[in-house]
């Protein structure tokens, strides 16, 4: 049974030459490749962190809304974890 999910992805753009649109499309392709169907992408912009974990001062926040089976999340999380452009990822059912 497909359910609606929201994924808050924080992208690390420090020292990256690619544009933010390229990084967002890379993450979008990973979601679709895992079996999710994208409904909406909200680009929330760059924000500074209140403290500097792992020497990163800020990140670019993007919210993805998609339909997927619960097994898609199990396949998607490890793929995005090894992506060097993804700093953090959070998921919730919408």
Provide structural commentary.
It is a single chain. By secondary structure, the chain is an alpha+beta fold. The chain has a single domain (3-93), classed as Alpha-Beta Plaits (2-Layer Sandwich). The protein is 29% helix and 43% strand. It has 2 helices and 4 strands. It has helices spanning 20-34, 70-81, and strands spanning 3-11, 37-48, 58-68, 86-93. It has a 4-stranded antiparallel sheet with strand order 2-3-1-4, covered by helices on one side. The longest helix is centred in the N-terminal third of the chain and has 15 residues, at 20-34. The protein is globular. The protein starts with a strand and ends with a strand. The mean pLDDT is 92.
CATH domain topology: Alpha-Beta Plaits
The CATH homologous superfamily is termed Ribosomal protein S6/Translation elongation factor EF1B
Estimated helix fraction: 25-40%
Instruction: Write down the overall geometry.
Output: globular
Could you name the ranges where pLDDT drops below 50 across 5 or more consecutive residues? none
Tell me the distance between the termini: 14 Å
Task: Please supply descriptive tags for the structure shown above.
94 residues, Alpha-Beta Plaits, 29% helix, four-stranded antiparallel beta sheet, 2 helices, globular, alpha+beta
């Amino acid at each position: 049974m497909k359910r609606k999910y929201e994924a808050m992805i924080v992208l690390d753009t420090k020292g990256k030459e690619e544009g933010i649109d390229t990084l967002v499309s890379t993450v979008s392709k990973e979601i679709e490749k895992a079996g999710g169907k994208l409904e909406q992408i909200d680009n929330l912009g760059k924000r500074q962190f209140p403290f500097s974990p792992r020497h990163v001062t800020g990140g670019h926040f993007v919210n993805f809304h998609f339909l997927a089976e619960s097994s898609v999340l199990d396949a998607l999380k490890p793929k995005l974890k090894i992506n060097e452009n993804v700093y953090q990822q959070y998921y919730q059912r919408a």
